[in-house]
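Ops channel
N.P.: pipeline sanity check, posting one input/output pair.
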């Protein structure tokens, strides 16, 4: 077990080393590309933003080996200017991140002790850390206020948040701004939810009374905006369902009036019409795939099927039927269907195509019949090949047996002596069997070739059938 663990550890160390080498390689390539750009201000800024100390001399010596022409007298000044800006950004981002994480501004002291800062000996910039922290702290309280507002919380919750946030610095202005935005979102979503469920906007009065009891600020305008926006989608969804369920605008107009609900008639009609256009397109496509042109029958049954005939019915059904019928009535399709043993309604296709499709069907069926014969021929060829291999193995075994019979002790001791009668009989039987087996091999190989040639011939016949079907 100890050896196994050691092996695993070695593999892990190798993996870590590989990753480190890859990272170092990528870092070197990046540094080389920086040198080739010749933008020393950018190079300095990257070092500063990474929390590194200013290291122009190292950068200059490295770049001189890559492209010395990019190292000029102004390089050092440009680098230092970029590094100063990058270093300031490093601390600004740290401060902003800490502020967003609800940490106090005193976290700066902890950042000075952080592993990265200590390892890189990053020069501190407290002023820029504080600037970043101030922004991040404000963003944190804005988000908190927004979340409270969207949850339908009362304004007085600010007092609780102020007490909770005293240790990290509470930003009343940012909290209130976020809460105002969230409160508006709260009422907007209430309006959306009511309209989505088909509830009249008169429900607002109930929401208002409930909100006042909870001391939640009321935004009638936001509620109405959400309701007005969603009620349109509500009628569009109903129209989409109604069009294939036997209902129209007249039914819904009466229904909306009875419920005290604003009826978005134009949007309803557009969605209702669009759904029926799709219905007749789908019907045409469904019939076009192997079924006759059934528009008159479908229109006659429209009331029974709880759908409506519209002005575009004939055009959209016919266009969809023709398109799908053209896809269905192809020789390739007829050939493939026949190969799979499916029946094809050739009679729904154009008369001038039907003879080609009939031929494709016949060829497809014959193609599959030949496929069965090819499989049998290939199976026969494999069986003959196996039998040849078995006979060859038997012959090799007999040859080894003959060698052992000939190497009896008395033959080894006396080269002039002859095999014993028993050994001689065994050798003769061995030789006869080998001769017979060699004769069998010739016949088996011939039968294997014939089976392979038959499969190849049938495959050529298949190719001819496919060509005739598709051309």
């Amino acid at each position: 077990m100890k050896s196994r663990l050691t092996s695993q550890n070695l593999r892990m160390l190798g993996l870590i080393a590989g990753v480190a080498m890859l990272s170092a390689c990528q870092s070197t390539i990046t540094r080389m590309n920086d040198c080739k750009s010749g933008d020393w201000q950018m190079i300095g800024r990257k070092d500063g933003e990474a929390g590194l100390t200013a290291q122009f001399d190292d950068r200059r010596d490295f770049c001189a080996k890559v492209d010395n022409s990019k190292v000029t007298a102004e390089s050092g000044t440009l680098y230092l200017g970029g590094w100063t800006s990058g270093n300031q950004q490093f601390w600004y981002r740290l401060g902003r991140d800490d502020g967003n994480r609800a940490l106090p501004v005193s976290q700066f002291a902890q950042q000075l002790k952080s592993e990265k800062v200590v390892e890189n000996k990053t020069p501190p910039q407290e002023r820029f850390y504080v600037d970043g922290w101030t922004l991040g702290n404000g963003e944190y309280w804005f988000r908190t206020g927004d979340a409270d507002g969207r949850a339908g919380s009362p304004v007085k919750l600010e007092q609780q948040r102020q007490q909770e946030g005293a240790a990290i610095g509470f930003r009343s202005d940012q909290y209130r701004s976020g809460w105002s935005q969230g409160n508006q979102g709260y009422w907007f979503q209430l309006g959306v939810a009511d309209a989505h469920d088909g509830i009249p906007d008169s429900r607002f009065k109930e929401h208002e009374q409930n909100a006042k009891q909870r001391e939640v600020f009321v935004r009638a305008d936001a509620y109405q905006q959400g309701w007005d926006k969603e009620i349109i989608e509500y009628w569009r969804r109903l129209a989409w369902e109604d069009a294939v369920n036997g209902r129209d605008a007249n039914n819904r107009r009466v229904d909306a009036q009875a419920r005290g609900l604003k009826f978005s008639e134009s949007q309803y009609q557009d969605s209702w019409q669009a759904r029926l256009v799709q219905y007749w397109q789908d019907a045409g496509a469904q019939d076009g795939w192997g079924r006759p042109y059934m528009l008159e029958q479908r229109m006659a049954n429209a009331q029974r099927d709880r759908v409506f005939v519209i002005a575009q019915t004939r055009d959209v059904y016919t266009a969809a039927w023709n398109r799908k019928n053209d896809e269905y009535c192809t020789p390739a399709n007829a050939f493939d269907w026949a190969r799979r043993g499916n029946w094809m309604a050739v009679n729904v296709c154009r008369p001038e195509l039907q003879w080609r499709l009939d031929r494709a069907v016949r060829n497809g069926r014959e193609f599959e019949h030949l496929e069965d014969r090819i499989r049998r021929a290939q199976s026969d060829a494999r069986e003959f090949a196996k039998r040849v291999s078995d006979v060859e193995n038997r012959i090799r075994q007999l040859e080894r047996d003959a060698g052992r019979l000939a190497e009896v002790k008395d033959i080894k001791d006396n080269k002039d002596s002859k095999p014993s009668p028993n050994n001689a009989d065994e050798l003769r039987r061995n030789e006869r069997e080998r001769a017979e087996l060699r004769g069998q091999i010739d016949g088996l190989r011939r039968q294997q070739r014939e089976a392979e040639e038959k499969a190849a011939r049938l495959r050529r016949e298949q190719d001819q059938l496919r060509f005739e079907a598709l051309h």
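N.P.: looks fine end to end. Residues 1-5, 12-24 have pLDDT under 50 and may be disordered.
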